[in-house]
Predict the structure.
Amino acid sequence: MKINWAVLVSALLLITALLSPLSCSNKAETPTPTPTSTPTATPTPTSVPLLPGWTLYHIDTFQIALPDEWLTIEVSPQIIDAMIKNLGQTNPQFVPYLEALKSQGSAKLWAIDSESKPPFFANIQVGHEIRFMSLDQYLKLLKNQLELMAGEDLSIVSSEKFSLNGHEAMRIEVSLTANTANGEPQTIGEQMVIVDNASDRYSIILAYPPDSSLNYKDLFDSIIHTFNIVNTSTPTPTPSITPTLSTEAILDEIATSVSSIRELSLEKEILPKFLTDQEFKSYIEKDFADSNPADELRIDKEELVILDLLNPDYDLATNLLELNKEQVIGFYNTRLSEMVILGDLQQIGPEEKVVFAHEYTHALQDQNFDLKSLPLWDGNDSDLSLAAQAVVEGDATLAMSFYSYQNLSPSELEEIAQNEEGQNEVLDSSPAVVRETLLFPYLEGTSFVNAIFAQGGWEAVDQLYSDLPKSTEQIIHPDRYLAKDEPQNVTIPDIKAALGEGWSLLDTDVLGELYLRIYLEAYVDSATAAKASEGWGGDSYAFWEDAGKRHLMVVNSAWDTPQDAQEFFDAYLVFVNNKSGGSWSVRLNAQDKRWWDAADESVYLSKQGNDVLLVIAPDETTIETILPKFTGF
């Protein structure tokens, strides 16, 4: 399938798909728990762009996002008392420090990584106190306090000042030795960020085992980028912005922020085009027509129909065009190196800011990594193209998220969410294959890029462009990319002579793990489909048409193990049974082979070792004609 689902490298009106709950209510005080309960930090619903699998918490006057698997606790005097009691036996040197936290009321949030392993769980503490000295003085005091607690078992590895969300901040790395619950000494690493804001000071402290397999330092980078100080006063309405230097200053400010976040710069500046609604739709229509010739769209539709992914009466061309008009609100045209945004230059609102941040990241990618050189639209391997798109869009969405955390207020984020309400009618009514392949580069792509970012920051993300993932499998399972689990090269023999006159080869391509899962889900439950497709090792398909517009689909797939091949084989048996309701006649029922006949369709399935052959033909004679070409099947 060679459809340019996202006609351009675009920012979609899909920010809601990246939103997660956030508490915007200001809490007068931390609630006091009952003796038998532990208060978890539970956000109240509003919206903010988040990494998939993360939640943003609003505590007191700050907000911070954490992975969903982390257990969060709002700190109260009772919680600190319980910690003092537990630590009193194993690490009495920390008790004075905890008692000081209790008396000052400075500790606000604790979070524990539930996936870290005993004897020490990685955890984060976020605090808020009154600023009473400079950062340099604070560092000296901190060193003295830590040395009193840990003595010679502590060392400050590094400290440096930097700017976080426009506030002066300092990052400190500490290594110390503490006793575990078993009384055994263990070296613990700490990453600390101290943030100053007028009369207030905030601290974010991550403690972790240095020998942990997870790179907590890079994870901490992701976390601190989400930290933001919330202005609890009533916001003043933002006045309209006229097209003067102030508008250019806003765009320059966004560009500077995104370049700093993404750690890249432009060699040649690009000015965005702001188009009216009608101008934008006209641009979309022209580019869609240029990118999707009618003959190719017809072939793509017929392929999706034979795979039960579209109804025969579905108007693919019209609906894809309407979907792009509904969803695309900005794009970076790689062919023209042009940035276009739907919006009014006279009013640069939060939505325009977020879209510009996303598209500016694409400009940074293009000038630093040459997007035109990437296989974003590979006609012979759509699975590879989706993987490349996932890197590009995941990178831009991650940078956009960091920008939004740092620069947009809760009211601006809420405005974006409100503007998007009711804007997904075409998307929501689209077939699953259209929705999922459109969303894949943004959702799965962001998860993948975030996993790579956690391994080595933006430098590791940069390296993706010279060593792209080769399949949607590697995007869905980042560990397989890191392990270099490459797709197998699968071929299909030449069957033209066997088919005879009248048959034409319309398309050859690769389905990949994503499409195979979506295909199975047409008649198999999602859990079974996911399990049956995750052992994918490679595939190739050929799509033929005869003079009577009848179609033949041949899919040859390779699987990681014989068990993986068996799982796909068994899932397809369920697929056929559910599709046919048990009404198809069974021509062949042998070990590792099935052959079904229906009124206008004949389906052949065969497994050999790690390989599975699937043939969907208009009749049994067509299958009998080509089977001798597939030795062993």
Remarks:
- The mean pLDDT is 81.
- The radius of gyration is 28 Å.
- The longest strand covers residues 167-179.
